[in-house]
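New to this. Look over this protein:
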Amino acid sequence: MTRLFGYQTEAIEIDGVDTLAAHKRALSVLRLSSTFSRGAVSASFPVAVLAIKDLLGSETWAGLSTAASTLGSALAAGWLATFMQRRGRTPGIALGLGVAVFGAALCVVAIQVGRLSLFLPGMIMVGVGSGTSNMSRYAAADLASVSTRSRDIGSIVFFATFGAVLAPNLIGALGGVAEGIGLDSNTGGFLLAIVLFGLSSIVIWFFMRPDPLVVSGGVDPKATVKKRTVPFREAVAIAWAHPLARLALVALVVSQAVMVMVMAMTPLHMEDHGQTKGWIGAVISAHTAGMFAFAPIAGRVSDRFGRVQTVVLAAFTLIGATIFTSLAGEAPRALLFPGLFLLGLGWSFGVVAGSALLTESVKESDRVAVQGAADLATNAASGIGALTAGVVVSGAGYHILSLMGMAAAAGLMAQSWFENRLAAAAARA
């Protein structure tokens, strides 16, 4: 028995590979990669919303940037899940992050020449990188035990904190650097994203070996007969057939959608009320700290008190967050800082617990497909929410958008009670 991150883990050999050593190596590589990739996403997000506003001359459709990014994340979830079912985690994650490098570069060009037709495809590719970064958390669960799965997932989410919090605070300085070399100030965040996505891809490709999914037996990349890939509809049906897997899917969708809808409009809401880019970046940093810094706590709570209980806590936290933001009509920082922080924290509890619950509620042979389908559905829902968020804020106000998020979180709380009762009844039968 070996102690890993404060708990006992047993080393087992599979085909001559020490699973504990492979697991420790994968976790170390994933943590470093997550730091880089999440920093890239956080650097590009605030300036993307502002760039769309400049390109269109209006904030009504400012949610297009987030919608394009989440579309890319959804495409990544479906495409990479299929790819990884045949080739493994390492090539799949490295490829998805590599696509984002080209996307960020295309966004720089698009902003500079003022072409929305170039910017949106670039954001879709940046979204592929964001979706890939999100999916990498499942690689931490490939060789994890049931009793520590949430903590392993949480450890990857936690290390994203460093990139996610630091990168937005560089937006103001990077904008000045970009202007100094003759570029638009909004390109600064994307220049940083190019570097960070590239580093993240390189780290995965060269150092996440052996592939944890291959070691766990989830895929054989040398197989002469290709493994049948499970299509999206079938994967969703597999999850929907079990109460707890169904709850996990709903938790992931609601946590992501509520977080994205409110977060997407916060930079514009602040800018409209006279806040500087520096303060916008600081609020987004507080938000991302809530998302990632407390992920280890979310993991420990989930492992100790249960996945369902943690999903309920996620819903409660999201309700608290949207109470703050619904009251922030004039964009006071005293309300937006705690509101956006709690919005990120609720997301963290929902995603960590939901990911673990989904993974352990379906058969091992179906896990990669169901994980991919869940992320595809999650990003599709948040993409639709982000696209309509601008319309809602423009027509009704930021507070109405917050109330919509509050209603969705309350629905998740009710769903948790219902599905838990169904699962308990099925266990007694």
